[in-house]
Design brief:
Strand order of the largest sheet: 5-4-3-2-1-7-8-9
Largest sheet: 8 strands, mixed
Helix content: 25-40%
Mean pLDDT: 93
Structural class: alpha/beta
Distance between the termini: 46 Å
Shape: globular
Strand content: 15-25%
CATH topology: TIM Barrel
Number of strands: 10
Low-confidence stretches: none
Number of domains: 1
């Protein structure tokens, strides 16, 4: 398989093998964390906003976006509320418009992650891969998937992954853990890089009382992950404001959304967006401020599954 790879694919393949070493992966994660802290430090952002030349565009370390919001499995406490979401598919024209605009705001987006729901459910996924790579030549572009549909994907999908150097991020849930070696071999036989993360626990993400300190909740979330989210020309500080209406409609709650920057607004810069997603917003009052985990299982479609105060 190695001999069939072009130079970029070979570099990615070697890098992935190195990252499977626990010590090297830990050091890599530490490096990424420290670099993001630098990019998002208030003084760095303030300097960039006030002093950087128009041609000096910042780097966006990471962004996620939905290709679908519905899923083919029903996980209890899913952070995207996919078990209770209606079918929704990202629009390819809107995606291209947003990718083009982001390429004018940032010198690079280091990692772009296409997520769901289950993104492999999107029948036009190939087009999203080509367009994303067209505008971001140097980005690490990934698809986050539960892997259940690997065996039904077309040759054109695998070719799009291979040609555009798309990496598969496989979230390995308990029903599929016995197939680890088989699935890894299947994907790698297509000349596509795959990494996996075994997940047998989920985290309750909400405080349904809505009395969390927004700053504390924001800092707690950022201590766990940095995942700004793109939807319809707006970048949110995370996915929660994007999908919270699904929870509200299902369970009759009134958790506020908001907390975004419009990338198409007149005069907006990449610095403006980074500043916007680097502070808490009203929805943070409804976010958990402590770890509250439970074993992975199927949902019972009850709102309390997501409530950290009940887990």
């Amino acid at each position: 398989m190695i001999l069939k790879m072009d130079s970029k694919s070979l570099i990615l393949w070697v890098r992935e093998r190195l990252r499977r070493n626990i010590l090297l992966f830990w050091l890599y994660q530490l490096y990424i964390k420290k670099r993001r802290e630098y990019y998002l430090h208030p003084r760095h952002l303030a300097w960039g906003k006030n002093h950087a030349s128009p041609s000096s565009k910042p780097i966006l370390p990471y962004i996620e976006m939905h290709l679908t919001t519905h899923c083919n499995i029903k996980c209890k406490g899913c952070s995207q509320f996919s078990p209770i979401a209606d079918k929704w598919y990202a629009d390819i024209n809107e995606h291209e418009r947003d990718m083009k605009q982001l390429s004018t705001l940032y010198s690079n987006i280091e990692t772009i992650r296409l997520v769901g729901g289950e993104p492999l459910l999107h029948t036009e996924i190939d087009k999203f891969l080509y367009i994303t790579r067209e505008y971001f030549k140097k980005s690490n572009i990934c698809i986050a998937t539960n892997g259940a549909l690997f065996y039904s994907m077309t040759d054109s999908f695998w070719e799009a992954c291979k040609k555009n150097h798309i990496k598969i991020n496989w979230t390995m849930y308990p029903p599929f853990s016995h197939m680890k070696n088989e699935i890894m071999a299947k994907v790698e036989s297509k000349g596509v890089i795959i990494s996996y993360k075994k997940v047998d626990k989920f985290r309750a993400i909400l405080n349904l009382k809505g009395d969390s300190n927004p700053e504390s909740a924001f800092k707690f979330c950022r201590s766990l992950y940095f995942a700004p989210f793109l939807r319809s020309g707006k970048i949110y500080l995370c996915s929660r404001p994007v999908v919270i209406d699904t929870f509200n409609e299902k369970f009759g709650t009134k958790i506020p959304a908001g907390g975004y920057a419009d990338i198409h607004a007149a005069g907006v810069t990449g610095w403006d967006v980074l500043i916007s997603i680097s502070k808490s917003t009203e929805i943070c009052r409804y976010c958990a401020t402590k770890q509250s985990e439970f074993d992975w299982t199927d949902t019972k479609f009850e709102g309390e599954e997501w409530n950290a105060l009940n887990n």
